[in-house]
Amino acid sequence: MTTTNPAIRVAVHGAAGRVGREVLRAVAGAPDMTLTAAIDRVPPDELAALPVDVPYYTDVREALTAQPSDAVVDFSLAQATLDMLPQALVLGTRPVIGTTGFTPEQVERIGSLCAEHNLGGFLAPNFTIGAVLLTKLAAVAAPYFEYADIVEEHHEMKVDAPSGTALGIAKAVHEAHPERFAHNEPEREPLAGTRGGDYEGISIHAARMPGRMAHHQVTFGGPGQTLSLRHDTTDRECYMPGVLMAVRKVGGLNGLTVGLDKLMGL
Fold first, then answer.
1. Which of 19, 52, 67, 217 could form a disulfide with 230 if both were Cys (CB 3.0 to 4.6 A apart)?
2. Is residue 197 within 8 Å of residue 134, measured between CB atoms?
């Protein structure tokens, strides 16, 4: 006799946004999930039609009380996420967070909330599997070079710069190369900041403009050679395999897990 596991009940917070709409489509199309609710601050009379038929709410507690959910996928703003979390966790709903821009103290707070409610939670600065692999490969290369630059490019509406992914790459590179990277300081700098942000000697450069979605490149330099690792995304659908992976695994997590690499076993 075979048994079928019940479908994972999933709400989406930040559902009116561009990534949130992709999450709605992905969850609705997943055979092992049930889409329970779309949540956003946009008033219903100002909301553009959602891509799937799902109950819509502007209040988190109301949504998760009326539509009990095993997980809530969050792609919103940092403060909106922090406001949402206590309301979700008290109702037994595990967070899968794709929002970026948190301070280290805020990430610690998210972890404390998950522990306080004895529930697993998941947070990733990037749900793109290719970006996770880029970070891993950059960490493998880092010990063999003394110079490193990171360039990231995003659309003009992105609220943080540099991206959480770029900072995550820089952190992984530094952990693999604990000594500060060599960092050229120009004798003259006619335009301040041209060398980019400085993270342990790694120069980080951010571009924002229409016509692109997300691009990250790490370049290492050494005598007579450079090594460049690059990842591009062309559609927000790229995040969905990682999001669905996290939704499927968050129920088995203890406390807050940070980074898709942990779920991928990297």
1. 217
2. no
Residues 6+ apart with CB under 8 A from 192: none
Sign of CA dihedral 82, 87, 92, 96: negative
Residue 201 and residue 199: Cα distance in Å, rounded? 5
pLDDT of amino acid 56: 98
Model pTM?
0.81
Residue 74 to residue 121: CA distance in whole angstroms: 11
Query: Is the pLDDT at 1 greater than 50, yes or no?
Result: no
Q: Which of 226, 248, 246 is nearest to 258 (CA)?
A: 246
**Which listed residue (13, 117, 136, 158) is catalytic?**
158
User: Residue 125 — left, alpha, or beta (φ > 0 → left; ψ -120 to 50 → alpha)?
Assistant: alpha
Q: Are strands 33-39 and 94-97 parallel, antiparallel or unpaired?
A: unpaired
pLDDT tens track for 162-191 = 998 899 899 999 999 999 999 998 889 899
Question: 175 to each of 4, 82, 116, 134, 138, how far by Cα in Å?
Answer: 43, 28, 30, 15, 11
Token match 């290369």: residue? 141
* Residue 34 pLDDT greater than 90, yes or no: yes
Q: One of 13, 117, 154, 216 is an active-site residue; which one?
A: 154
Q: Which of 104, 96, 100 is nearest to 79 (CA)?
A: 100
Q: Please check the confidence at residue 33 and state whether its pLDDT lies above 90.
A: yes
Give which of 46, 231, 23, 48 is closest to 37, Cα–Cα: 23
CB atoms within 10 A of CB 138: 24
pLDDT band for 157, please (50, 70, 90 cuts): confident
